[in-house]
Amino acid sequence: MATALITHDDCLGHLTPGGHPERVARLEAVLAALEGKDLIRVEAPLAEDADLLRVHPRRHIERIATAETGALDADTYMSEGSHRAARRAAGANVAAVDMVMAGDVANAFAAVRPPGHHAERETPMGFCLFGNVAIAAKRLLDHHGLARVAVVDFDVHHGNGTQDLLWDEARVLFASTHEMPLYPGSGAITERGAHGNILNAPLEAGTDGPAFRRVMEREVLPALDAFAPQFMLISAGFDAHMADPLAGLELTEADFAWVTHGLCDLADAHCGGRVVSTLEGGYDLDALAASAAAHVDVLMERGQ
Description:
Blueprint: E1 3-7, H1 24-34, E2 40-43, H2 49-52, H3 58-66, E3 70-71, E4 77-78, H4 82-102, E5 107-110, H5 132-143, E6 149-153, H6 160-166, E7 172-179, E8 198-203, H7 209-227, E9 232-236, H8 253-271, E10 275-279, H9 285-303
């Protein structure tokens, strides 16, 4: 078995204004860091409406498809290539779960942009247009017939979009660690989902690797173990790195490798090692590249 790297050059066609943190260079840095690794490289397809409609209403999909270039809000922009890039980002996640379910690969990493975990049901925001990881979760449930899917988000910003899209989905456990207070302002421990299917573990600014690991070991990993997922999805944001300019956590590449091992341990125990990870945040290029490489190295090791 092997690890798939799913991406597409169209994801480089999503252009943002000069100085914007979510820029083309992010994906270029990640892909450069993964160059030469023994990965099965797959071109991401365009997501079909049927998959997008599992989490977004048609009016949202049409809004993104027809939006003029420019700002959708203070942070989120459309260029001529943005709609196609967003379709590729969502499609990469669909293709990834399909490949893992088929047994073609052990696990997969979707190296895509724009990211997805802030996109709510009808609101593009926080650099995000479609809810990539939620789309993958619903694909597993409604197309592949799974009964329990876990989504784990260790981006420094709370995945409000993923939470919104999966709030009423009893078949998914969404678990998030994130700095708080911080954009987008959600992610309190009291936000539990319609079925108790949301676990938020907010972290104070300055939280370092050992403290992060304690929270994972005491709260997140035991909850995932009790849920016994049949598939593990990861929103892999690397902006909790100590070098990242947009937040204040103090993690390192070693912490991202450690949490990836922990999630893979649970995947081995409950779902035959089935893991798909998708790129979310990370805005210091060197830290992003090194952290993504450390994360993928673990997926490759565990997928052998």
